[in-house]
Amino acid sequence: MTSHDVVQHVRRILKERRIGHTGTLDPLATGVLVLCIGQATRIAQYLEAGEKEYEAVMRLGITTDTLDSDGRILEIKSSPVPERDSIVSLMRLFTGTIMQRPPAFSAVKITGIPSYKLARQGKTEPNKPRAVTIKALELKAYEYPFVSITVTCSKGVYIRSLCADLGDALGTGAHITKLRRTRSGRFSIANAVTLEDLSGMVEAGTEAQAVATIADALEDVPQILLAEAESARVTHGSKVSCPDEPGTGGRSGLVRLHDPLGRLLALARLEGGIIRPELVFSTGS
Fold it and tell me: Annotated catalytic, 26?
């Protein structure tokens, strides 16, 4: 099932057309897929930017064209079996900000065309490397040829590429066989529901239990409470001065703005003491 398939299922279950997902999961993958419903589709790009956590299993000794077990085998290597300590040491080199090349079979666009479409036609060239951040990379289990890892990373990291690069560095080659996203931003697997669960909730009239408000979804974004006059200006998209309150001095970046009643008014950028609304909600959320 693709991420688009999941969206289609939920549209039918909730009878709601305005649904979008944040952060595509490969068809091979399972786990957390955050969906934005109705007005919440407007904040999808902000949620997608959140930190991710994954559990993955890679198989050493075999490379494939898609970098996963769904692909065509390119090479079977008979390299020496790596020691556990060698794998752990190597993983340290892949932690931090690294350059990573997205897979040919990915949604990255090349002159407006998804890379995977070109790859299927044999027309694609290697995607350009880009900077991504691996916050944590841990070895959980190792029994050759299978290596189980956990990854905490920034947006834009391809775990398939990470496993393939690890395999190349070990001299064995590798591809991914299992992938599970356990967290996306503040949403973890512990809070997730299956499609079957959601369908049952709708029948019971309890589907609200599976839905977070826009304000809750953005809880990790720093909050600024505005006075009534500034609140009125923000609702019209006008910039305002940052209020002189504890914790705002020297702050910059994305913030959420609330009115005196605590209602969410907007997402904005704070820089140099000036707040510039970026996304204004028609009514407090």
Answer: yes
